[in-house]
Amino acid sequence: MAPDRFKHYVLGDEIIDLQHKIIFDLSIEILEKIKLLEDVSDLVKDILIFIKHHFEYEADDMKNNNYTFIDHHLRQHALILDTSSYLQNLSVKDGSNFAEILEVLVNHVDFDDRNYVEWKLKRIKID
Ligand SMILES: [Fe+2]
Ligand SMILES: [Fe+2]
User: Fold this and answer.
1) What is the pLDDT of residues 23-82, one digit of tens each?
2) Which H or E run contains 34?
3) Ion ligand 1, residue ranges at CB < 5 A
């Protein structure tokens, strides 16, 4: 992702932002390969493993901070993982599926993750 475009998705939590950047960079690489009709199966496997790891990190962080809306947030993660099970069989022809799933993920970062990080930062200030 172009650095200026990524700026919008910097939420203010160093580790979460770094993990999002890794996911976005991998996504861009996949989208570029799809355009060139190159095989993306290995990269898709990598990104799915990393997304799962990232979701686990967020879940642990939310538990440690007693996040009020954790149940809703974890349901969103489960939904995204369900949707991305499509990705496991992604071939070059299915490139549009990947773009759709990426959009769901980007919206999650922009809305649900942003809500969490804002909540966490406010809480840290109060404590
Ligand atoms: Fe996230
Ligand atoms: Fe999340």
Assistant:
1) 999 999 999 998 898 888 888 889 999 999 999 999 999 999 999 999 999 999 999 998
2) helix 14-35
3) 113
Distance between Cα 20 and ligand 1 center (Å): 6
In DSSP notation, 84-120 reads HGGGGG--GGGHHHHHHHHHHHHHHIIIIIHHHHHHH
| Cα of 93 from ligand 1 centre, angstroms | 27
pTM: 0.89
Is 93's pLDDT higher than 80? no
Task: Give me the CATH number covering residue 43.
Answer: 1.20.120.50
Please state, in angstroms and rounded to a whole number, the distance separating the CA atoms of residues 41 and 69: 34
Residue 104 lies in a domain: yes
pLDDT more than 90, % of the chain? 60
**Distance between CA atoms of 97 and 86, rounded to whole angstroms?**
8
Give the residue numbers spanning the domain of 116: 11-126
